[in-house]
Structure formats: C-alpha cells, structure tokens
Amino acid sequence: MGCGGSTTNKTDGGHEKEDYLREPDNDLIEVEDYQTLDDLAHTLADGLTNDVQKVRAIFTWIGLQGSRKNKSKKEDNKGQDLSSPKTIVQQVIQRKRSAANIPSVFIRGLGKSVSYEVGDKDVDNLKNSWTAVYVAGGWHFVFPHWAFSAVVGHSKGTWTLLETQEKRTREKEERSSGKTVSHINDYYFLTDAEEFIYTCYPFNSKWQLLTLPFTKQDFIDIAYCKHHYFENHYKITTPNKCLYASVGGACDIGIRKLDKEESFYAYKLYFNHEKSKTTLPSEIQLKRYVAIFNEGPSIKFFVRFPCEGIYKMEIYGGHSPLCKFKLECNEDLNYIKPFPLNPECGFGPNSLTEEAGLRPQSHKCGFINIRKTMNFTVIFNITKKVFVQTSLIHNYIEQETLNKHVTHKIKGQELDINVNLPQKGEYALQIDAKDKDSHGSYKNACNYLLTSDNINKKRKHYENPIEKRIRKALQEHTTSNDIGALQKALDDFDKVDLDDKGDRQQAEERLTYLSLRKELKDAIARRHGEKLEEAIENAKSSVYKSNFENIIEEAEDLLSQLQRLKAFAHDILQMQQTTVSEIQTYKHPKPMAYDVMRATYILLGEEEWRVEEWEQIQALMRRTGEKGLLRRVRQFNITHVTKNMVSHSSQILRLYDEETIRASSVGLGTFYKWAIHVIEEMTKAEDFSGDLEVQENIRKT
Prior knowledge:
elongated; alpha+beta; five-stranded antiparallel sheet; 33% helix; disordered N terminus; 701 residues
C-alpha cells in the first residue's frame, strides 16, 4: 500500500500557497550590502506582486542564512545584527509595518520541540517564539526556525524499543543531545491555525487564531501529531489525546486517511525502563503485542501490554512519522498473552485482498467472535482464477495439529473456508493466494483474528453491584473443579457482556483443562476405542499436554490393549455361525473341545458351575442375539475378567497347544487362540508374581 503525497495549505482566500509563490534569487543577496533592515527588506520584496510572495522571499532568505557557515557578524546603524536569522525574524517579519508593508506579530509561547516527550504534563520549559503575518486576507503562522533546521538523534535514554511490525527487540536507546541539521520543511510557512495549535501554544490566546481557543490543559492533552499527519490528511478516530490508559491490559488507537489515497502503516512500541514501576520480565517474548485491524478506510492499532509500566507508541504512514502516544498500564498483567499473528497487512479485508482476487462475503471485519461457536465458514467471491492456501495459527498448539482443523474448497466463483477449532482459545486464520498462471510464491491476502473477546466493544470503566457479583462468582468458580458451575458462571458473565480483564480468559482456560481431563477419564472408564482416540488427540494437541502426561499414558496403554483385543477377536468375529453350530452339535466331544469352550465361557464371565457339563456348554452355544457367543466376544470387556478367572482358564488349557487343537478343529483353534491372548493380556495388567501356579500354567499354555 502506498503512502499519500504531500499537499499544500490554503490561504483564507481559498488559494493554494503555491499560487502565490515565486522563488527569488535570494542566494545572491548578501547582508553585507545593506546598511539597515529596511534596505534589506526593500530589496527582498523588490519586483514581487503580492504579500505572500514578499513573506516567502524573506522566509526563504532567512533559511539560506541559517544554512550558511562561518558568517561574520554585521550590525546596522541601529545596532541590530544583520547576520542573525533570529534578528531577521524578530525585526523584519515582526514589524507591523516593515519596509515590505506586511502586518506581522512576533509571538511568544510554548512549542513542543525536541525536548518535549509525548505525554509530558509540565511544558513550561518549552518556551519558543514564532511569527504571525497578515497575507491573502488573513493571519497565518510562519516558523522559520523549525522550517530550516531540525535536531536528529536526540534521545533522553529512557526508552527501550520492544516491537516494530512483527519484529521483537529489547533495544535500549542511548542518551544523546542529537545534532542540529539544516533542512527545508515547507509546512511551517503559512501554517493553518487549527493544525499549528497541536504543537505551538501562544501565551496570548488571541494569537491562537481559533474560534474556540485552547486552554493550556487542552494543549497538554491533545495528541502529539507531526506535520506529515496534517500534510497527508490523517485523522485520529479514537479520543484525540496524547495519553491513553489501559483497560483490561489493552488499549486501541484508531486513525484514518481522509482522502482516497491508500497508506501503508507501521509502528514502534517502546517501554520506559526508567519511569516504569516494574521491569520487563526476561522470560517474556516481546513480539506480537500490537495488532493492526482494517476497518474500511480506518485502521486500529490494538496494543496489549506485556507488563505494568509506561509505554510509547509511534505510528508511521509509510516511513513518515504521523503521531506519538503515551500509554500507561497500571494493572496486574500475568494473564496477558501476545496475538497469535501480526501480519503486515493487518487483520481484515484490505486492498491486497481485492488485488488477490478475493472479495469478502461473510466476514468483512478483522475479527471473528468464537464465544458461541467453534465451527464456522468464511466465504469469499472469487474475481479471477487463483490458488489459495489457508492456515490456522495458535500461540502454543502445534501446526501439524492445527492443519487438520481448517480446509477450503473453491466452487465456481466462491471460496469456502471451513474452520473447526480444536479447543477454546485465540487463533489467527491466514489466507494466502496467487494467480493460477503465476510461478511465484503465495502472498498474504487476508487474515482474521478468532477470539472470544469483542475487539470493537467500548470498554467500561465501572461496574454495577450485580456485574461485580457476576465477576466475583466467575473468579471463585475458576479455582474449583465443578465444570457445570464454571460453565454457568461463564454464561452469566457473557449475558451481561462484561469486559474481559483476564477473568474470562482464565475461566475459559480452566474450563478447557477440566473438560479435556474429564473427556480422558470418561473414555478410560467407558473403554471405548474411538472415544479414547479422540480424547487422546484433543489432550495431546492442547496447551495442557504436559499436565496430562500420566493420564494420557494410561489412556494410550488402554487403547493399545483394546486394539490388541480387537485384533485377537478378529478371527472369531469372521467365523460363520455354522462353525459355532458344528462345535455345538458334538455329542461326545474330545476333552480338548470341552476344555477350550469351557475356558472361553469362563473368560466371558460364566460361573464355573454353569459350564461343568458339556450339555450346559451346548445350551449356551445355542443362544442367539445379545447372548449369542459371537456377540459376547465382540462386546467383551477385559475389565470384567478377574484373577480367579485367569487362574482357572490357564489351568484348564495348560495341557494344550494351538497346533494340536487347530489340527482337530479350525473353529476350536480360533477360540483357543483368543482365550490364550486374553490370559496373556491379563498377566501384563495384573500382578501374578506371587501366584506360582498361575505362572506355571501360563508358561505351559
């Protein structure tokens, strides 16, 4: 995005400055050639047709004198120093009726010069002076000193640069008085009064030239805007003041460009390491604490504070400084986290989105509220043939996991991006695109912040008694293990739409933790394979993975066991009912058939006295439906198997091996193999170290 170009100020007659200007050959006029200021002024104004040109001639000549080096001092016959630009300002321009016949007034007041620090309340040391001239039907300000010189590199050494456009740093400024350099800044020639008051406050309020004069406090409080801000037609859309206080550990600053030219924005965030009450914690990663949101022609900078203290925010249009703000945070900020992403083009649709061939249909602002839903679709119209990539980003969740939760599909002229968030929290959705016929790389086209906080909501500075009780209840339930009570407290909090001062975020994180833990425990208790897989995946992809290490291990062991048992039962479940019927029809079975089926039924939970006779076993095998043998194997739950059942089954089967039994009957061999696997699985889960008989039987089987 390009930065808007400079424009000229208008005079009261509605004409541009440049309509009146004609640069004279002032560099040929030497002060040594004149005996008085009147003579000098006559020469500077000679041949010029209007007052603006005359003032411009004097203004330009002063600038040239200031840029010359090794000037010798020369006084006129009245003892006035003709070689001093300050004398020229005070004596030539200031004279009400100078030789150039231009009404002018020398004005004293306060100027926010290089020694001013944004947010300073004591400005009495900022004394300065400038001139008002009456030209083109009105009074205008001229400030040659600021127009032709500047101090670069000045620093009080109190600030640490924290972040600048996705880059983190801890760069401390060094104290320096700076260096005065010559330059030309045309802004301070005939400056508009409504802009001039932002930086220059006359002691005589009459010479503010405003219908509604500023008080000194107004001058102290007003936003600190640089000349590029006015020249390129910007406007602050949040309170027009230089000091912002945090609410809930954050604040926002809005700005827009009034003309149709687009602007690229940048910023710098500083921390005052001398005046802040706290120091920057060394463990904090100073990155992504500022996010830019596109709101049509406006931009909002959302600032989160990594710790309590005094901050400074500098906003740039392109590479030109626009305005500075002092930010104060006097809150406990243990809960504040950085944004998951801070893209250069900001959050929300912008000109790059249109250029990429994407036109938003469903979501036209930069944030998506996920308080009530974790599943949603973002829709764009496609204006040209493009390839698209989508990414979900979180501060802590691994990218491999996140990639499973966002998909996109192009259907004709529509792009649908489906998002299914793995858990509560704050995410960024990044959308990149490139032309189908392009061989270049993907470029960022649009981004969204997915959050449970309403970014655009006006923050409240007070709460009524009911709201205070609701907040307190949420804080109390956040420390409990009652999921139901915590969820209700969150719902009550959301109903009254309280600001999240960290309470809601902590409660939501606690609810996520408790829900994941409950999901794991329930899945373990139910011994359900699919539920276990889902619970394990959710826990491992969460920020609480390390907290759940033991229970995840238990769940994974159980899942492995269930998968093995399922594999053991596979052959039986593939068996035809006719095979079971064949075994059941044995009138005089061999001992091995009787023993295998008896051991099988004991492991399935039948009491031993119910399987003492073959006729009893035959009766059980004739059952169908839920009580049928194959259904019981499919629904087998190893937790119901006791040590005694394992002991008796292993005792029964100790004399046989799979090869012998399978040679007699394939069906019997399948049941034998299943029973042996269950016995072996149980010995891994149970302690049989003291039971020598069971150990021996297991060894034999």
